[in-house]
Structures are given as C-alpha cells and as structure tokens.
Amino acid sequence: MYRSLFISSGFHVGIIILSILAFPFIAKKPIDVLPVISVELIEIGKLTNIPFAPKAKKIIEKIKKKNEKLASEQAPPKKIKKEKNKKVNLDENKEIKKLASKKTPTPENKIKKIKKEKLESVALPDKKKKNIKLKEEKKQKPSKEIKKDKNLKKNIKKIKPSVEETKVKQVSEFEKKELFDLNNIAALIDKSKEDFGETNKKLNKISQSQDSSMDSSKLTLSEEDALKAQIFGCWSIPLGLPYNEDLLVRIKLKLRPDGTLIKTEILDHARMNMPGQGFFRVLAESALRAIQLCQPLKVPTSGYERWKDLQLNFDAREMLGG
Amino acid sequence: MKIIKLLTGICIFFLSYTSNSFSLIEVDITRGNLNPLPIAVSPLSQNNKTKKIFQNKLNLDDLGLEISKVIENNLKQSGLFNPLSKDAFLQKPDIAHLKPRFEDWSLIKAQALITGKVLIENDKLKVEFRLWDVLAAREMLALSFTTVPNNWRRVGHIITDKVYERLTGEKGYFDTRIIYVSEEGPKTQRVKKLAIMDQDGFNIKYLTLGNELVLTPRFNPTNQMVTYLSYFRNLPRVYLLDIETGIQEVVGDFPGMTFAPRFSPDGKKIIMSFAKDGNSDIYTMDIENRIVERITNHPSIDTSPSYSPNGKHITFNSDRSGYQQIYVMKSDGSNVKRISFGKGIYGTPVWSPRGDLIAFTKLHKGKFYIGVMRTDGKGERLLTENFYQEAPSWAPNGRVIIFYRETKTNKEGEGFSAKLWSIDLTGYNERLVETETDASDPSWSSLLSN
After folding, report:
1. Could you tell me the mean pLDDT of each successive run of 10 residues in chain B, 450 residues long?
2. Which one of A56, A162, A206, B384 is most buried, counting C-beta atoms within 10 A?
3. Contact A228/B27, CB-based, under 8 Å?
4. Candidates A281, A292, A312; nearest CB to B27
5. Whole-number pLDDT of residue A274
6. Among A227, A237, A292, whose Cβ lies nearest the Cβ of B27?
7. pLDDT higher for A3 or B283?
8. CA distance to partner chain A, nearest, from residue B65 (Å)
C-alpha cells in the first residue's frame, strides 16, 4: 500500500522535476511579463551607441544597492537587458512579433508595472511620479517624432546618423543624471529639450547645407515649376505623334541673364535628318518653336552662372498616351 | 613625397572643377497644350495675265485664293491646325512668297506660314508653294506641281498632305476620295445610289442609277476599283466596278448570297461572306483567276471580314460564342482567337492601315458606339456614342475614321436622316462630312497620289 504510494509519489515528483527542467518557463514567476518595457529599450538600443549599455548596467546595479527608489526606476532596464540578450539569442523573429503586437509603452504603463513589482512596493512621492512622467515624455517625444517622421528619414538619409548621435548623447546623459542627482530631473528635462533643439539645429544645418549643395547644380522646385509652367503654355504638342515610340528631344540652351536665347542645340541632331525619323524631327521642331515662343524664359533673377546653360527634355508620351 | 601630394591636390582640384563645370541643369517638359497649331495660309500669288487666263478657263476670280481656301479648309478639318483669318495678314502674298517678314507673321501668332504662286506654263497649271517656320524664321518645305487647270482642287489637297506630313510627321489623307451610298426619299422607299466624292465633299459623282439596292461599297487599296453589294435576280451578290471605265461584273458564281466584301491589301483578292442554308462563312476569291477559297468553317454566322495591312491576319465578327463578337485569325483561317470581351455586341471590325488598331461598332444598352481596340483586344476606346451609327472606315493614314449616323424618326415617320461623320483617334475632333443627299456606308480610298 505504502510502497505503491511512494512509487506513485516518486514518479510524480520525477515528472514534476523533469517538466521543470524541460520547460524552464514553469519555474519562472509572472514577473517575466515585463518585457513590454524591454522591447522598447531594445528598439532604442538599436539606435543608440551600444557600448554605453554595459556601463549603464553596472551603474544601475550600484544605484540599486544604494537607493531602493533609484533601483525601482532602474531595475526594469536591467532585466530588460537580460531579456534582450536571451530573446535575441532564442528567436529574433518572435521578438519582432512581440514588438509589433505589444502596445507602445507609455509613462503611465511604466508606472503601473513599477507598482506591480514587489521590490518597488515602496510608494513613490507624487512629485517624483510627476517627474518620471515628465522625464519619460520629454525623452520619448523627440525619438517618437523622429520615428514618425518617415518622410524626413526617407528624404534626408543623411539626417539619420545625426539623430543617432543625439540619442547617444541622451542616453549617456540620462545615465549620468540618474547617477548623480535624481532631484535635478527637471534640469535634465531642460537639457533634453536643449538637446532636441540642438538636434533640430543640426538637422536644419544638414538640410541647409544639402540645399546649398543642391543649389549649385539644380533649380529650386519653385524656379523649376515656373519655367515648366511657362513652356507648357508655349508647347503645342503635335497630336499626330505616336505615343508608343521612344521620342525624347533634348535641347541644350545658352541663355542671357534676362532669359533670352543666345543659342539652342538639339543634342540628338543627327536624328533630325535620318530616314524614318520624321516623328523625331516634328517633335524637335515643335520643341524649338515652344522655346522661341516662350522667350524670355522665366529664369531665376540671381545665380546666372548656375543656369546660363540649361537642358530641356521634351517628352510628349505622357500627354499623347494619357 | 611633396610631388605626390602636389599631384594628388591637382587631381582633386581638376576632378572637382570638371564635375562642377559639366553639371548641367536639366528640366523635363512632359506637358504642353493640345491646341491646334496656328497657321497662316497666304493666298497664292499670281500676276494679272495669269489671273485673266484662269478667269476665262475656270470661271474663277482668283485661283490662288481658291487653292489657299482648299488648303485652309483641309487643315481646319483635321483638327490639328488653326488657320488664321486672312484679314489679319500684313504682308502681300507675292512678297511673302519671296521672303516673309517673320515679325509680321509672328505678330498675328502664326507659328507656320504657307505661301505660294500660281503660274501657267504650256496651258498647264503650275503651282509653287513654300512652308515656313515663323518662329525659327526659316523655310521648311518648297515644292512645285504641274497639272491640268481643272485639277486645281487636287493641287490644294496635295499641298495640304505635304504640309500635314511635314508638321505632324505622318502622311496626310486629303488627296483621297470617299465612296458611299447616296440615299434619297422616305425611309420605307429609299433610293440608294453609289456615289463618290473628294474627302472634303466636293466633286460628287453618282456611279449607279438607283434602280437596284446597293450596299457596302469598298475601295480597292491599290487602284480605282470598287466592290459592293447589289441585287442580282433578287439575290444579294458582290459586284466589282471599275470607276474609270464604268465596267461592272458579278464576283463569282455562288449558289447563295454573298455580302460584306472587302479587298485584300494587295488588291488581288476579295474577301466576303457567303451564306447558304442559314450558315454564313468567310471566303476569298482571287480576282484574276477566280479561284475561291473557304476560310472559316463553323456552324455560326461569320461575317464582316477585314485583312490586316500585311495580309497575314483577318479580323471578322462571329456569334460562335453566343453573342456577336470580334475575332482574329490567320489569313488561312487557322488560329482563331476572340478579341472582344467587353459588355455588348461587337461588329464590323476594320483593321487600321497602320496595323495597330481595329475599329468596330458596338451595341450596348440600346446605344451604338464607334470605337477602337488593339489587335489583341486590349485598350478598347469608345470614340463616339449615338442612337444609331455604324460602318467605320479608316483614312489611309490610320488617324481618322469615317462612319455614318442615322437620326430618329418622329411618330409620323419623319425626321429620318443618314449622314457621314468623321472622328479622329482622340475622339474630340468629330465632324459632319457634307454630302448633297443623305449618305451611308462610306469607304475611304487610299491616297490618289500614291
């Protein structure tokens, strides 16, 4: 009787041990749900300078020992790092899926989760809560805005590194601030503001410098539009042209400062007199007529050196085939 | 070391300099206006002696002016040109023909100018003309024609063709004729005659007396032969008519009715439908040796055949799918493919002389449409819609289609009319073709000067 009972219980214990070993997540506590925060930080970490992370880890551990309050704020990042390493090793795809499915963490969520943690059971003063909120908001906003502004990323790729640079700064400063003076979070916020301002300045500087480099080789959009609109009005497209043939006429112009013509040159001039190129000749002549009719061309009032030589590419396919 | 640095510096400077010096600003012009080109057609100049001779011979006050009017009218009808009013011209025709004052012509917004001169040489009419690019201030074309004085209208058409070709890049269609069925009388008792005219509606001639019903005349693309449908012993039969000699004959000896005839591109064969016992198939007949060949063999109604310009394919309509649709096959009748899949009934397919499109008539929800589609059936475009219209026929340059349109009758059976209309491929330039009587079943000839 007792024997069978012992055997049965032995088996049961064995199965339990085996299952714990085989399925490690059983042994873990529900606290592992926290990766919500870790996911966000992983994302930030990708953008920031990674070498700072181990340093931050150590610092945070020190703080944790010294001050429970500080630990309560820094603990999640610590665990996050662990989670990050584990999960990246296990399955990156799963991590990405989680990223997509989980809600974007907000400061409120963070505070809720902090409350859940046993270690952080000590209630935080209201002021500090507010500070945390503020801090998180101020810190997140710039990165979110930059993330959301896809066009900015796409159009000015060069800007991206600069964003990363600024984020590196934020992280390092964040760590320093956390270390040395938690009461100066407001100052930190101001600094982050300044940093963001600096980021913007940098962005502007970059775009301006890009613009200036573009100016040397292109007309601005408004200048180009004005010129196009003028020529659109002058160009009577020969309606008999076939729309499915390769008919592109490139004409090089030499202009005076007032926009009148000094010289026009058809770049594929040889085609003009070639047999079977009647359509090309017709299109080229119509383009030349348009230029003659339009002069003086609406060119920019300044930067003559930039546009004294212009090339107009006449392509009627869009109109004829449309 | 210093030398290397110096050389490197020179290279960098040179590269940066060259890259800057060759950076040319490019602007893409992908739009323009679709307004007709403003063109000035100056009256053709002539001296007083010539003027008097032509006044006596042709009973015309000013032949030069009349020819310029023919050109002007042609250009206007094409929809691609906007002939400017002669009242605005500042330069006299004879001086303009020698050397135009381009400032004067550009002042009235002319972008092209036609000048000319009429002469008489050995009792023949000689016409010189020049086409000028006003904005570029240069001559684009200069030609001279000699013909009998009575042929002066054709000179006007030929000049228009040359101008059209020079300014649009494609051949003109003005020196052509149109054959059609002239209709007179009440709807129930129409007298139908075969008639021929210039494409602008002048020089109308009637080829039959109206005793027999005539239908679907078609030009031979290579000469002045015409094939059409008429009744012989109360049976519809395909006829062949030589316009110059007036000789006509029945095509083939078929034991049933033949209809919907059309010439092959080389003009040596006639393709038509032959119906017997309720079944209609497509046949060809060699005009020279009269050998008949059956092309389709299907229990459905196959009709309205039309060759592709290279003669390798035939398009026709058939109800083999249950509804009348357009099909394409090889000229030996193999590889039949349906190409029309839109809603409605499709008929009278005609292959464009360019070979790129097929014109057709479509009936959908009680409305008739004239449209075009590519030869694979894609890109269907309906050009015009009306109560009743059909029988499209291409101009020789494949840019304009002529067809006929009937109007509704009122309750008393009055108000019926049938008129010829033309439309270009854009679908915007739709024009009535003036005829003396009502008209139907038009067919456009190829260029006479070919």
Report:
1. 64 50 78 89 91 86 93 94 94 91 93 93 90 92 90 94 91 94 87 93 90 90 86 81 86 81 93 87 92 92 95 95 94 94 94 94 95 94 94 94 90 83 91 94 89
2. A56
3. yes
4. A312
5. 82
6. A227
7. B283
8. 27
Kindly state the helix (H) or strand (E) to which residue A305 belongs, with its residue range.
helix A304-307
**Cα(A247)–Cα(B414) distance, rounded to whole angstroms?**
52
- Per-residue pLDDT at B450: 65
Separation CA B408–CA A210 (nearest Å) = 68
Q: How close is the nearest chain A Cα to the Cα of B266, in Å?
A: 23
pTM for this predicted structure: 0.68
Q: What is the largest CA-CA distance in chain B?
A: 109
Q: Which chain B residues have a beta carbon less than 8 Å from that of A284?
A: none
Q: Which neighbouring-strand residues pair with A253?
A: A264, A310
φ/ψ region of B368 (left if φ > 0, alpha if ψ in -120 to 50, else beta) reads beta
A233 Cβ under 8 Å from any chain B Cβ: yes
Q: What is the pLDDT at residue A69?
A: 53
Instruction: Give the closest of B25, B136, B165 to A288, CB-based.
Output: B136
Whole-number Cα distances in Å, A149 to A51, A104, A145, A198, B374: 27, 17, 6, 17, 45
Q: Looking at residue B333, what DSSP letter applies?
A: S
Query: Do the Cβ atoms of A310 and B25 come within 8 Å?
Result: yes
As for the ipTM of the complex, it is 0.75
Closest CA to A136 of A163, A159, A114: A114
Lookup: tokens for B317: 């309509």
Residue contact B35–A279, C-beta within 8 A: no
Give the start-to-end residue ranges of the domains of chain A.
23-61+72-122, 125-217, 221-321
Task: Report in angstroms the alpha-carbon separations of B69 from B94, B148, B152, B200.
Answer: 17, 19, 12, 12
The number of C-beta contacts closer than 8 angstroms across A and B is 113
CATH class of A221-321: alpha beta
Buried b (16+ CB within 10 A) or exposed e, A165-200: ebbbbbbeebbebbbeebeebeebbebbeebbeebe
Identify the structural domains of chain B with CATH numbers, from first to last. Answer: 37-168 (3.40.50.10070)
Name the strand (E) or helix (H) holding B157.
helix B152-168
* A237, A310, A313 member nearest B32 (Cβ): A237
